[in-house]
Design goal:
Helix content: 25-40%
Oligomer: single chain
Strand order of the largest sheet: 1-24-23-22
């Protein structure tokens, strides 16, 4: 999570209320620490251990180290630099693969552009676009579809803009402005209550540990220390909240605008032969919806509602068999038909193996191979796995070297399956995985 102290506060409050053990994981100031990245080349770069890293990273590293990771079918061979190294303030937000095997990276900052790379990472072209793109995809004919700033664009294979339309969910967001204002006011009223209520809860949690045994274990001592740090932060925030005056209309308007901008964002976009699907925040509440429309952006309708996602991410990818959604907060993949009827879902939370999905919210992203197999990507862990369309585990693809954090880790698979690409938002690049010459056979890694 990024943003102001209040946004971090809301995230911590939710996590603390979900699980006793997760309090330690949220004790750091940020889920994504700033890391000094060494100069990159076309070869794989070893991940540097963060200096002064938060307890979040250390604990998550311990979790991943406790899992025996099987040998994958692919290995990391290169990194494609995409973002601000070329132009300050320009970051990769999404990417796709066109029929020619070129990578199209949707980049945004104060302005937007699409950067085109060959499979080996050589930059070929740069297309300027009049929006800051959130999501991008391409159909089998090479037509490019881009979403961002509340708009949808259609481009030809050379980057010429053929069509611009207001996104259907943007119209709905504007129409619900009064409802958003009510929601913001309610949030502001409840925020102070939430902060104050966390103080006695944390004090009680600390007391329970200390009363458990006269001699605390090393793990218990670490928990107490972490809880005490969080408690002090909540006390300071509670004091600040109590000293605040009632929010002004200008403050409420600013919050409404921020919420509107968040709801305008498109988490993912996918295109098949006839239709386009986008995933975005629900107009009401905090879930996610999936919209379907034709390739001229006409006849839009919501086909899936109430999806649960974390960190502003919900990935939907379509194929001839319908759509696959990585519902990360439920640790599962959902398979729907084009009308949004649930066909099947699979997955479970699994911190001790690789057949399920680990960390706090995974799988974060999905991709569909040519044969209809489903690839999943897990943020924080860097795992890529492969399943049949009905959810049967087919094997471990590989583990990428990824900066830990809960975030969008979009993946793409080449038509022949020999290459798999994963996006690393933190380091602003695309990681390239290639099939090994000798493919390993998984044996005893399912129950590690």
């Amino acid at each position: 999570m990024h943003g102001t102290q209040s946004s971090r506060l809301m995230w911590r409050s939710v996590v603390l209320s979900c699980s006793f053990s997760l309090v330690v994981i949220t004790s750091g100031e940020s889920a994504e620490p700033k890391i000094q990245i060494e100069k990159t080349t076309s070869q794989t770069i070893p991940l540097q251990k963060p200096q002064n890293s938060s307890p979040t990273i250390g604990i998550l590293q311990n979790i991943t180290e406790s899992v025996k990771v099987p040998e994958g079918t692919h290995e990391q061979i290169a990194i494609i630099e995409v973002g601000s190294k070329f132009l300050a303030g320009m970051r990769i937000n999404s990417f796709c693969l066109n029929p020619s095997g070129q990578l199209l990276a949707a980049c945004g900052g104060e302005r937007g552009e699409i950067r085109v790379f060959d499979p080996d990472g050589k930059r070929l072209e740069t297309w300027k676009v009049p929006i800051v793109p959130d999501a991008i995809n391409v159909d089998q004919d090479g037509m490019v579809y881009v979403a961002g700033s509340g708009k949808l664009l259609k481009l030809d294979s050379h980057g010429k803009i053929l069509m611009t339309r207001e996104a259907p969910h943007a119209k709905a967001v504007k129409a619900s402005n009064a409802k958003l204002r009510e929601q913001v006011v309610q949030q502001m009223k409840s925020r102070s209550s939430t902060v104050s209520s966390m103080v006695p809860r944390l004090e009680n949690m600390i007391k329970q540990i200390k009363d458990k045994d006269k001699t605390l274990t090393e793990q218990d001592q670490k928990r107490v220390l972490s809880y005490e740090r969080i408690l002090e932060q909540y006390k300071q925030m509670a004091k600040a909240e109590n000293n605040k005056k009632a929010p002004t209309d200008a403050q409420i308007d600013a919050q409404v605008e921020a919420m509107s901008n968040q709801k305008l964002r498109v988490s993912s976009l996918s295109a098949n032969e006839k239709e386009i699907f986008i995933a975005c925040s629900a107009i009401k509440g905090y879930g996610y919806d999936v919209w379907r429309m034709d390739k001229n952006f006409d006849s839009p309708s919501v086909v899936v509602e109430g999806l649960r996602g974390c960190c502003g991410q919900m990935d939907v990818q379509c194929c001839t068999d319908g759509i696959f959604v990585a519902e990360n907060s439920r640790h599962r993949v959902n398979h729907y038909d084009r009308n949004g009827k649930l066909i099947k879902h699979w997955g479970k939370r699994d911190r001790n193996g690789v057949e399920g999905f680990g960390s706090c919210c995974n799988p974060m992203n999905v991709a569909v191979g040519r044969a209809g197999e489903v690839y999943t990507a897990e943020s924080n862990l860097g795992y890529i796995k492969r399943y049949s369309a009905d959810g049967k585990y087919l094997g471990f693809v590989g583990k990428v070297k990824l900066v830990p954090g809960c975030k969008n880790v979009s993946i793409l698979v080449s038509p022949d399956g020999d290459r798999v690409y994963m996006m690393d938002l933190t380091r602003n690049h695309i990681i390239v995985m290639a099939r090994k010459s000798i493919v390993p056979t998984e044996t005893s890694d399912k129950k590690s």
